[in-house]
Amino acid sequence: MTTGLQLSRRFYESLVAPIIARALPQLSYAAARLGDGSEVLGFDTEMSADHNYGPTVQIILDAADFAHADVLMAALDAQLPERFEDWTIRYESLGRHVRADGWHTSDHGAELMTLEALLRRQVGAALGPWSNADWLSFPEQRLLTLIAGAVFRDDGGQLADLRQRLDYFPRDVRLLRLATEWDAIGEERAFVGRTGELGDALGSRVIGSRLVEHLMRIAFLVERRYAPYPKWFGTAFARLDSATVLLPLLAEALEAADWQQREAAIARAAEHLAQLQLEHGIPGAVPPRIASYFTRPFQVINADAIAAGLRGAIADPMLRQLPVGGIDQLTGMVPILTAPEQARRLVAALVPDQPGE
């Protein structure tokens, strides 16, 4: 199967690049396939082609050169054909006609924008530098839309520089996100057994699945990889180095016949991740310990101590006092995570006023 990224590259090289060269031969620009779409993450299949799919390329211009956007779009509108390699490149039904500050699209897959407009659309930020509070408002999936995909041309290297700066969370933000996941595990680690002991098998399974997700997110953080949105969460997790050990344990937790088996599998997975934090040299990591929950017959990880160690290693006092980490740890609601200004406002409600603000 031809992937979406391969298709978009050929679309750019065969059609879009020659049109740009004829219209504005001296133009300096970047060309890439970024943004939304399973193909940007490299996870597209034949089923992906049934909607919002096809040859697409982002042409990224300097702010000064964006003055030529109307001329360039007129050339693309006039010269691009209806189809490319049996794919339509006219997306009339998607309402792609947009002319805004630093952004110009039409009814085809060649989109014009400035780098700052792209960044503002995806995460609601200027080109930087970004504060730790800014980073807390960036959902992992939205960051992936900027650092995944493929770059076909990059005159001047500004796009490569941006992608490198967005490559992963800063040290303290990563530590806070890790502490937040361990805090969440600490809140519910004993409930797999408690609900099971009461005969609530469904409740035990639900809590077990919640703990599994937190453990998976810790694995992404340990390996410095952004986690994608739910459709591709498990697929991306399976590609992590730690998945070799963790996948069987997490599958056992989800498929367990009773709460004792479920609790034991979760504890072993948590223990492995805590040990990985030590092996990766993560600041504040402490050794794992599995023990009874008070005097109850539930075997759980020392999540409170693990979270406290990570939080204590955070240098930024503002971050150290926050109750939660990133926006996607605060909510999983898509209308928030895909609306950068909403995400920033929600994070701002938790972040104390900073000196000079």
What strand order characterises the main sheet? 5-6-7-2-1-8
Question: Segments where pLDDT lies below 50 for 5+ residues?
Answer: none
* pLDDT averaged over residues: 93
Shape: elongated
How far apart lie the N and C ends?
53 Å
The computed structural class is alpha+beta
* Rg (C-alpha, Å): 23 Å
Helical content band: 40-55%
Q: What is the tally of helical segments? A: 18
Biggest sheet features: 6 strands, mixed
The SSE string, one letter per element, is HEHEHEEEEEHHHEHHHHHHHEEHHHHH
Strand segment tally? 10
In what range is the share of β-strand residues? 5-15%
| Number of separate domains | 2
Describe this structure in words.
There is one protein chain. The protein has 357 residues and is an alpha+beta fold. The protein folds into two domains: 4-165; 171-325. Helix content is 52%, strand content 11%. It has 18 helices and ten strands. A hairpin with a 2-residue loop joins strand 3 (83-84) and strand 4 (87-88). The chain is elongated, with a radius of gyration of 23 Å. The model has no long low-confidence stretch (mean pLDDT 93).
Topology:
Blueprint: H1 4-23, E1 29-33, H2 38-41, E2 57-61, H3 69-79, E3 83-84, E4 87-88, E5 98-100, E6 103-105, E7 110-114, H4 115-123, H5 132-136, H6 140-147, E8 150-154, H7 158-165, H8 171-188, H9 191-197, H10 201-222, H11 230-237, H12 243-255, H13 259-279, E9 290-293, E10 296-301, H14 303-312, H15 317-320, H16 327-330, H17 334-337, H18 340-348
Parallel strand pairs: 2-7
Antiparallel strand pairs: 1-2, 1-8, 3-4, 5-6, 6-7, 9-10
